[in-house]
Amino acid sequence: MTTMTAGADTWDMPLVHRVFRRDFRMLPALVRAVAEGDTARAETVGYHLEHLANGLHHHHTAEDELLWPLLLQRATPQTELINRMEAQHHRLHEPLERIGEINPRWRKTATARDRDELADVIAQASVALDEHLADEEQELLPLAEAHVTQAEWDALGERGRESIPQGKLALIFLGSIFEEATPEEKKRFLADLPVPARVVWRLLGDRTYRSYRDTLRQG
Description:
With 219 residues, the chain is mainly α. It folds into 2 domains: 12-163, Four Helix Bundle (Hemerythrin (Met), subunit A) (Up-down Bundle), CATH 1.20.120.520; 165-219. The protein is built from 8 helices and no strands. α1 (12-32) runs antiparallel to α2 (39-74), α2 runs antiparallel to α3 (79-109) and α6 (168-180) packs across α8 (195-217). The longest helix is centred in the N-terminal third of the chain and has 36 residues, at 39-74. The radius of gyration is 18 Å and the shape is globular. The relative contact order is 0.16.
């Protein structure tokens, strides 16, 4: 029987959720604005969509493997809630899988048919994601704070950091988060990063992210 003290500080999870909400809400319009045959623009938007969907997949996988089992073991009166969170992950799998099928094809050909289907599927994913993240923040995070230790929560965060791409994509990832962060949240998030990563961000981060963001959202 565990003797570790629960009381995880889950402040970072809603911050990451704000990024997923923002971009999944934004992308249907960006996709629909791409002119038929404009493969250059389709590549710009589709590239961002690919990495956003991959990020959400890694986020959910980490919860499936590291968080749900702990809560099922320690918060048995809330088993129905935890199972509902898992079921919402499964429901999101279908639109994310469709995005993974349509997006590469659209990036190559920029057909109107693929564009419109892709935008519709992203919009469906966005609605399901909004529901899931709201439930998770309102009902699941308080449960985690009561039953998960800080070390266990930090392991979840470390899994997330391991999924951050290297190089320029790492700066884009950080910039995307910092756009949603308060000054205090940004300070805390940076403090958890290795020193070399903090130095690179301070030297190149804002400029790199702004250029990427403005190019993506120009449509």
